[in-house]
């Protein structure tokens, strides 16, 4: 799988060190709040598991599945909820855990949807932020790494469901997705 990457951006060690730092900061901010930590399936699974493991405060978890990319490197622009939260979030402090903010469409849709359910607060923790991909104005409250405007995979991020299990992150060789278009 490594040969499908053009460039390695972040090693497993770099990611783990940064996620531990983020977890400490988030835990300080949510110390007394018993937050609902919402994992955005499927990409955020690895980040969610690492982040909450290091938070060491009382919290609850829930999961929501959203899809806009499918088997493509471009957002379809249509955000769909494939699996909703199990519990109401009224009056709760909600932390959305995302793998990447790219165009921002997924998160802006999700944040609005959760605020409409009368959450007390809704904040965003993203492992990766791609500011040059943005088409809507949204900034994560906590961000692990800023990434270039290229299609990246690993640490939960996929191309056509592959590469999620890589413990590191890199830029996918364009030849991988260009050949599959034919
Ligand atoms: O900022 P955006 O341009 O909206 O892109 C970010 C979203 O796109 C990816 O999800 P995808 O639709 O690929 O679902 P997945 O997590 O199941 O891979 C990623 O996991 C984010 O949720
Ligand atoms: O760069 C990316 N890689 C994988 N999935 C994504 N979803 C939005 N941007 C990306
Ligand atoms: Mg995806």
TrEMBL record:
SUPFAM superfamilies: PRTase-like. It is found in: Cytoplasm. Keywords: Cytoplasm, Glycosyltransferase, Magnesium, Metal-binding, Nucleotide-binding, Purine salvage, Transferase. Its cofactor is Mg(2+). It catalyses: IMP + diphosphate = hypoxanthine + 5-phospho-alpha-D-ribose 1-diphosphate; GMP + diphosphate = guanine + 5-phospho-alpha-D-ribose 1-diphosphate. Pathway: Purine metabolism; GMP biosynthesis via salvage pathway; GMP from guanine: step 1/1; Purine metabolism; IMP biosynthesis via salvage pathway; IMP from hypoxanthine: step 1/1. Pfam families: Pribosyltran. GO terms for biological process: GMP salvage; guanine salvage; hypoxanthine metabolic process; IMP salvage; purine ribonucleoside salvage. Its EC number is 2.4.2.8. InterPro entries: HGPRT (IPR050408), Hxn_phspho_trans (IPR005904), PRTase-like (IPR029057), PRTase_dom (IPR000836). Residues 13-159 form the Phosphoribosyltransferase domain. One of its GO terms (molecular function) is nucleotide binding. GO terms for cellular component: cytosol. Purine salvage pathway enzyme that catalyzes the transfer of the ribosyl-5-phosphate group from 5-phospho-alpha-D-ribose 1-diphosphate (PRPP) to the N9 position of the 6-oxopurines hypoxanthine and guanine to form the corresponding ribonucleotides IMP (inosine 5'-monophosphate) and GMP (guanosine 5'-monophosphate), with the release of PPi. Belongs to the purine/pyrimidine phosphoribosyltransferase family. This is Hypoxanthine phosphoribosyltransferase.
């Amino acid at each position: 799988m490594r040969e499908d990457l053009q460039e390695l951006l972040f090693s497993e060690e770099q990611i783990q060190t940064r996620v531990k730092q983020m977890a400490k900061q988030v835990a300080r901010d949510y110390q007394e709040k018993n937050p609902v930590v919402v994992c955005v399936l499927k990409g955020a699974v690895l980040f969610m598991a690492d982040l909450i493991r290091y938070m060491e405060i009382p919290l609850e978890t829930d999961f929501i599945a959203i899809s806009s990319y499918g088997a493509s490197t471009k957002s379809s622009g249509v955000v769909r909820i494939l699996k909703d939260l199990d519990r109401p979030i009224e009056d709760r402090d909600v932390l959305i855990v995302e793998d990447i903010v790219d165009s921002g469409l997924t998160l802006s849709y999700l944040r609005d949807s959760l605020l409409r359910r009368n959450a007390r607060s809704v904040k965003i923790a993203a492992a990766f932020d791609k500011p040059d991909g943005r088409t809507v104005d949204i900034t994560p409250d906590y961000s692990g790494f800023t990434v270039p405007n290229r299609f990246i995979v690993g640490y939960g991020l996929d191309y056509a469901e592959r590469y999620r299990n890589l413990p590191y992150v890199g830029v996918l060789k364009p030849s991988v997705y260009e050949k599959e278009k034919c």
